[in-house]
Every structure is written in structure tokens, then in C-alpha cells.
What does this fold into?
Amino acid sequence: MNQVLQEIIENNRSWTEKGTIATYIPELAKANPHALGVYLVDMQNNEYFAGDVHTVFSIQSISKIITFICALTDTDFNTISKVISVEPTADEFNSIANLEIKNTNKPLNPMINSGAIATITLVKGKTYEEKFQRIFHFFKLVTDNPNLTINEAIYQSESSTGDRNRSLAYYMKSTGIIHDEVEEILNIYFKLCSINVTCKDIARIGVVLANNGIQPYSNQRVIRKDICQIVKAVMSTCGMYSGSGSFATTVGMPAKSGVGGGILAVVPHKFGIGVVGPALDASGNSIAGIKVLTELSSRLDLSIY
Amino acid sequence: MNQVLQEIIENNRSWTEKGTIATYIPELAKANPHALGVYLVDMQNNEYFAGDVHTVFSIQSISKIITFICALTDTDFNTISKVISVEPTADEFNSIANLEIKNTNKPLNPMINSGAIATITLVKGKTYEEKFQRIFHFFKLVTDNPNLTINEAIYQSESSTGDRNRSLAYYMKSTGIIHDEVEEILNIYFKLCSINVTCKDIARIGVVLANNGIQPYSNQRVIRKDICQIVKAVMSTCGMYSGSGSFATTVGMPAKSGVGGGILAVVPHKFGIGVVGPALDASGNSIAGIKVLTELSSRLDLSIY
Amino acid sequence: MNQVLQEIIENNRSWTEKGTIATYIPELAKANPHALGVYLVDMQNNEYFAGDVHTVFSIQSISKIITFICALTDTDFNTISKVISVEPTADEFNSIANLEIKNTNKPLNPMINSGAIATITLVKGKTYEEKFQRIFHFFKLVTDNPNLTINEAIYQSESSTGDRNRSLAYYMKSTGIIHDEVEEILNIYFKLCSINVTCKDIARIGVVLANNGIQPYSNQRVIRKDICQIVKAVMSTCGMYSGSGSFATTVGMPAKSGVGGGILAVVPHKFGIGVVGPALDASGNSIAGIKVLTELSSRLDLSIY
Amino acid sequence: MNQVLQEIIENNRSWTEKGTIATYIPELAKANPHALGVYLVDMQNNEYFAGDVHTVFSIQSISKIITFICALTDTDFNTISKVISVEPTADEFNSIANLEIKNTNKPLNPMINSGAIATITLVKGKTYEEKFQRIFHFFKLVTDNPNLTINEAIYQSESSTGDRNRSLAYYMKSTGIIHDEVEEILNIYFKLCSINVTCKDIARIGVVLANNGIQPYSNQRVIRKDICQIVKAVMSTCGMYSGSGSFATTVGMPAKSGVGGGILAVVPHKFGIGVVGPALDASGNSIAGIKVLTELSSRLDLSIY
It folds into this structure.
């Protein structure tokens, strides 16, 4: 298997040349555009990997999954449904027009920025700090990595350039979708986007989802089964920004990408997969990362469809 | 299994009271709103069913799948990608605004009306009649039902009230997405929507997709495997109109609905499923049909996620 | 005055180099891009002119004014208000998205294509031919030119490339805004756009509006006063496509432009003005024509504001 | 004349029953819905009035005119044009979708909220306090009322419920339309909306615009003539929210309304007019105020068209 992964990395590394690093958050521009790595964890906790698996990157939008899991755990689905939908959209991840034109002001799904910001308000916590710690603690649990840290430089950069997110949040506050302090909620959002991870960390999130909530290494249930299925469904329809539909046809795995270059993918009952490749395509997804997953899906016949 | 299906039908029949028959095509208004039936075919060609499985209904949008399969068979994917995308949308199935505002005029996917109309132009045929016969013949093959007929009254009704579809088609002609005669292409579209089927017919389409293209009763390959995966992926992200995301979280099967009340669902490697229930929810999906599939998915653990 | 006009033409003729001829209707592409002419008629029926005043051009969207006057004459304003609004829009003249998203499907105003098409259905006439003749006859009356003709080549070209207008019309038919035969209504629309005129013809329409409905040369009332005021108000807010607001600030006259290169402008109580200059700006207005009107307005202090 | 105004107030007072007080800013809900008053100032500084001319109300959006005049005075039109357009729109005054979909992120005009917020950034002032004082001072000058005050309760209410405006401002900051501190700019915006005025104050602004910038009582020029014409043009196309086009056809005067119930109208070379009537129609305009202006325009033949 490691041999297969090695070949796939080699076959697709040249794709890193065709993408570009995210620069709208200045600190992200420092990433290595040529990095490419892949990490698999299976149900027996075997690990396979190839490429730049030690590259550290900020988790960015992949954190939306963790926040969504926490909200689904802490708040009943009916209440959540009044705040966010779970419908895919072809709009950009930071679109605000859809809040005005469609869906009576509700964010269309928790994988776009508006939805993720609203999701944070549904997580348990008497204070904003408690909300953040609740999510961050769960992050460490599900990755089995108690040493996760926030990348301070990226967090500061996110916060100082986060005006589009402020616009989304204030819009939702003006329509009664959220009620909390905008800067406090965004502070949590920016911090969660700035968590440093490697491929292995996100592969470990993936394998828990693949195993419907039970960590293969501990046999401990850390997520409810019904929540795992909701999350994988939403990843499948909404996880890859405006390229979600195309990804479903070519790769066919529930997945979530981040502009830090990571992709978390899940093969139900088989694998959790983490990929890193900071050079992005026009939709904001790792360009070579998608190619790696496409070849992997094809060679091992991993599409869920 | 028939016992389970029987219980599910009984548990959910009262939901038919909460929906409404489609009336925008006058002829559809004649359907029986209380009908509810379900039909399963498995990989060994065993058949299970309960409820109103003899109810005949017009296939409507479920035909979009058949047309898409024919286009994928006759035209290479690269060429298709220049005409239609495969991205889900939260817009209505007959939306025209997205052709103007988004995606440089391309229909977002082949499951909405604009996309389905464009798909027809990609099917092989020297004449419009040949195009129609090519799709209709494939319909009979994949349902294993050589006796399929067009419901003339519905076809006339579709055609005489099809001005929104004319608008979509002329818009696409004005932007160079389609080049054919609008009335000829729509004539094929209206006819395909008007094919009379029962649950069994659509379950048989489903089982071929579940089996990646090989009919379980004949062992004959009738669809390429890669095409089956593309089609199931698109059904999963776009098949249930503006309720596709919600359906993925509650049922978790590739599916396609029609305003005639049918739902075709696929459990890969396991079942093709046909449901009928003409009373519709606000998204245009069979309201009780979704409930039947929800309970079925839950009791037999059929979600692909 | 002729001296002033001569200077203004000379000062602005170089602007014709910066514009482009409309080409989406192939026949329009044959116009002379360098032509520039201006024609004034005052309340005493004095005529002043300079430049290419003999250039014949198709009236195009300027005909929307004539159609609107006929509809206002034949149908009470209350009934008209149920079919079209009189609100300006920043959308393109052929936009269809606004029919779906805004204003409950009503065209926003009679100066954009959707509104003009709907306006035709409000003109008196038992047959489509009668409707056309009613408008065409009024055209000849108000221009005092019984020899007006349809440019057959342009009419054919409009009709064969008019799919966007077909899309608009079928959309409105699907939402009950119009009830007539689409091709028949469009046939009238295309013919009216194809009327051959010179600057003098449109200046003569302008002077009737300037004089609140009475022809200065005959003292005959040909338009009701209240209708003149409605039409000039709508020209002021909607007459110059997506450049209407800018035109109001720089020129300050009720005006209507056409992609044939004509601009009809009105200085209430003073002048009717016709301009020709087929090279267009990005909004579809005569680029040098606007400059001529800007200088004229400034030198003679003609802004109504 | 006072007799005519008296009759007009009486004829239209019952219209106040059909409207509703603005309540989205809680403090506005305290206004008297039955109030109705009108005030005219002519070029010889004669004053005519009838009805509740002593009713004090907050100026709200009418302040957008004053801000726009200051910006036009302090910044050249070319620079302004890079930040805001002057194109009318059928969108709501607080629409954000048009910033995303149209016009490359520029606010469409200075009379909608986004445009007005951006306009403030174009006013001279080394500090935010200087910017505010520059506009407020001009306010006192042009109304000839040195005693104008801010309504503190309304200002606090505006600020605490101003999240939609925060959303607009942060959106524009994210796209580089504005560069200042959002809360500082909005602070100015909220204060300017909260200025207490009477009909007389706004009639006095109107008469200066009617007289192309010269105060009739002092013969002092307080606004450049070209700026007056730009402002009146923009009022004519954009001043009455989404009812601007309709107002042009029925009243035909440059005007600007505010949700406090005021309307400032201008009859060039003749009158400045102030109306108060806090009961609003669906577009946010004084419902009886429009009726008063409609009758006044009709009886005195005041339409500019």
C-alpha cells in the first residue's frame, strides 16, 4: 500500500505547479506550494503514507466539520434546522447574496462560511471561551493529538483580514439567525481555522467518521453514529466548495477541504484519509490533492457510488 | 422483507395527507393523492414490494437520468463539461436566474430542467426522431420492459403548458449552449417526461445502477461502470430538487424524484428501489415516498454514508 | 445655433473612435461607425442641425417609447400597472434574472426588453396585424413622416437572432404576465425595432413630448399631456439602459437610446433632439452621441435639474 | 397659497391611516402616525405651510443628500466614481446582494445605505470627528438653522440595531471600497440619521437646490451649481427608495425621503418643499406625504417632465 501511495504522489506532484497558494490571508502565502502528502488510516488502525506527511498546515475550513459535530451533539437537529439548512449551493463559500435572496436568510449549509459561523453559536458553552474550549478539546480527542496548537500568526492574519466574515456575521445578526456578539463568535471561528495539523491528524478524524464514530485504536465511541452519517452526507454534497459535485463524480468520497491545502476524505467502513497540497485550484481546493484522491479512488475502487 | 415493506407502507401512508398533487401540468392533477407503493429488486433479482405497486404514473424528471446516461454514452465527458456542469444548486428546478448570474451561462447540472434540456442535445441521432428513439429504446432496455408507452394526455399537457421550459431553452440557445431547434428538443423532453411507469420499472433501473451497469437478471452490461458512478454521484448531490441535501442526511441514497410522484433510489451493491406517492412536498418530492425511504434506510441500515 | 451644433459635432466626432458597432444583430454591423449627427426642433418648429443628419438608422429601442405611448393611450394605467412597473434598474436591458428574483415576475419598466414586449400586449388591436398597424400608424403621425419603412434585412436579422427575447417572452407567458402568442408579439417587436429613421424623425417625436403632446407645426394634440409626463419621467429614470443615472447627472434630459445608434432627447418646453452615432459604449448607448448631448446641455444650460 | 396647502392636507390626511410607522429602529416607533404637514419656500424666500409643521422628526435618509453634497465638494467626481456609481436600482435600500452580484462591488448610488456609508469616507476631515463636524456644520448652514441637534435616543437606537449597516460596511471594507474603521464611519452615519428637523428645515435645503446653490434669503452661494444638478439628478432617479420610478411619473420632482416620515422635494427655479408624515408605505416612503406632493404637483403643474 505504501508503494501504491508513493506512486500516486509521484504521478501527481507536477499538478502542484498548476495551482496557486491562497493569499487573501497574507500569512497563508508563506506555505510551500510544492508540498504534497497523503496519509491513510484503516479500521484496524494500520497507517499508510507517502510524500510530505510532516508538512504542518492550518486546518482552515476542515474545522467546519468539527464545529458541526459539536453542534449536532449539543443541540437537537430540529433547533439546528431553524438556523442552518443542509442544502448544497453553487455559490462561493463566502457568498452573502444567498442570505438575502434565498432560503429566508438561513445559511444554506454548515460548510460555507455563513453556515459555519452560525454553527458556532449552537455549540454548548456558558462563555465564549467555554464554547471555544469545548470544540478545541473535542478536536484533540478526535485527532488523538493532545498537542494541537493554534498558529498565532495565522490567527492574527485571519482576524485582521476577516471583514467578509464580519459582514456575513452582522448580516445574520440583523436577521435574527445569530444573537451572540459578532466579534466573540468570529474570534472562535478564526482560532479554529488556525489550528496547526498534519495529514495524519486529519486522517485520524476521517477514520473515526469511516468507523461511524468509534476510534479504531481505542474502540471508544467519540461521535454518535447518526451524527457521523449526517456529517458524511453534508461533506458529500457540500464539502468541496463550488467543486463538490465534480469531486463526487471523479472521486466519490465524503470530503472537506481547506484553503490551507488540506483535504479530509472518508471511505466509509474502510479508510480515513488526509491529504496536504497547498497549491489550490479556482474553487479553493488543493489541486494536486484532488488528483491524488482521484487516482487513489480509481486504483482501489473506493467510490461510494 | 415483504413484511417489513408492508409495515413501512402502513406506518407512513398518513403522510400522503400532508402533500399536494402537482397541478401546474393540468393532466397531473388527476393522480390519486393517497397512492403509496414501494418495490425493491436485489442483486439476485429477487423482488420485494408492498402498497400500490400497480399504480401507473408518468416518470417526469426521473427520465433525466436516462437521458444523462445516453449522453454520457454517446459523447465524451470533456465535451459534455463544456455544455453542463455537475454542481448542485439550492435554486428551484426551473430556475433561469442561475443561467444569467452564475457559471457563465452553463446549466449547473443535468437534474434541473435547463440541464436536462441541454443534455438531450448531446445524445446521438441524425434526426430528432432518432434522438428520441435512441433514448426511448434504452429506456425499454434498462427497465426490461418493451411495452413502455407515452401517456399522450400528459404529453399534450406538458407541451401546452411548457412555456417555462421554452424560456430556458431559448435562453440557452441565445448563449450558444444549445444549437438545435428549441421546439424539437422540447418535444423530446416532453415525451420523455410522459412515459408511463410503475414502481417496478424504476426499481429495475435502480438495480442496474446498483450493480454498476449489469442487469442482474441477464448478466448483460447495459451501462458502463464509470457512467453508473457519475450518475449515482449526481443523483446524490442533485437528485431531489432543492431537498437533495436534506435527503442525503436522512436517507443517504442516490435518488431521483419526479413530480409524477415517483422516486428512484439506489443502494449500491444491494438494491434498486422504486417508490410511488403522488402527493408532493414543497420541493416537489413525494412526501410520503421520502418517509418510506427514511424508515427503510434506517431499519435496514442502508445509508451509503 | 447651427454654428453651435457644428462646433459640438466637430468637438466630439473623435469619440466615435472609442465605441463599437452593435454586432449581436448581424445586420447592424453594417452601420457606419464614424457617423455623427444632431437635429433640434424647437417649439416654433424651427429646425437646427449639424453633421450626418441624412444617415438612416434603425430605431431599435427608441421604438419602446412609441409602444408605451400607445399602451398608455389604449389601456388605463391601473391595468398597465398590473403587467409592468415603472421602476429603474441597474440590470442589463435583456436581463431575465430580475423576472425571477424581483417584483413578483413583473418587468421592472417598459424601457427594458421584457417590459417592452409586455407593453405590446397592452396596445389595442383585434388582430396582431391591427396592433402593429396601430403603433406603426402612430409612428408616422408623431414623426410627421408618412414614408417611414421597415428595414427588411434588419427585421429578418432581429427575428433570426432574437432568442433572448423569445426566452423573455416565454418566461412572461409562463408566469401569466402575457397571454398572447409569443411569436406574434415578437414579430411586432422585431418590426418596430427595424423602422428606418433619421435624426430628424426622432427629433420630431421629441418636440411633441417637449410640447406636452401638441405638434408645434400643426398645433394638433397627438398625445395626452399626462401621458407625455409619464413617458418623460420613465425616459429620465430608465431611458439610457444601465447608464441612465449617469446620463441624468451629466446631461439631465429625458432621453431614450437604441443600439442602432440613435438617441431621442427632450428638453421640456424647449426642444426635441435627435442624435445619431452608431458607435456604442459598454451600456449600448451612442458614445459620441452622449458627448454631443453633454456639451449641448452644458453650453445651452438645458438640464432639467 | 396657504389656502391651497390647507386643502391638500385635509384631502390627504386620511391616507395616514393606510401606512405604518417604521419600527425596525425601536425609537422611531414613538412617532405620531397621524401627523401630516407641508412647508414651501420660494425663490423670494416667501414661506407657505399647512398642517403639522411643528412636528419634529429625525431626518434619516434625507441626510444622504447632505453627505453627498459634502463629498462632491471635497472630492473630485472622478475619484468618487471609483467608489460609488449613480445608477438607480430596484433593490431595497439595505440590499447587499447587489454588492456581490453587480457593478464589481461598487454601491450603485449614494441614496441607498451602502452608497451613503461609502460617501462618508469621501468627505474631508483628518479625524472622524472632523468629518462629522464638517457635514453637521454644513447641515446647519444649508438649513439656516444653527440650533439643529442630534436626537440622542434615536442615535442610540440606530447604533444598537444597525447590524445590517455593519454588514454592508464590512462587505465594502472586504472589497476595498472603504478603508476606514467601520464603527467610526457608522457612528457618523447613525448620528447624521438622527438629526432632529421640521418640515421647514428640509424645505430650506430644498430651496437652495431649487436655486442652484444660492440661498434666497442671503444671496449667498453655499453649493456649487454643477453639484446641485448632480444631486437633483440622483434624487430624481434614486431618491424615493424602490418607489423612485413611480414617484417620477406621479409627482415629477427631485426628492428624497427618510423613514422618519420626511420628504424633501425640489421644484427647480421655484420651490423647496418639506413634508412630514411618519406613516410609511411598503417602500418606506411617507404614504400621505406622497399623496400631498401628488396633488400639489398636479394643481400647480409642478412636474419637471
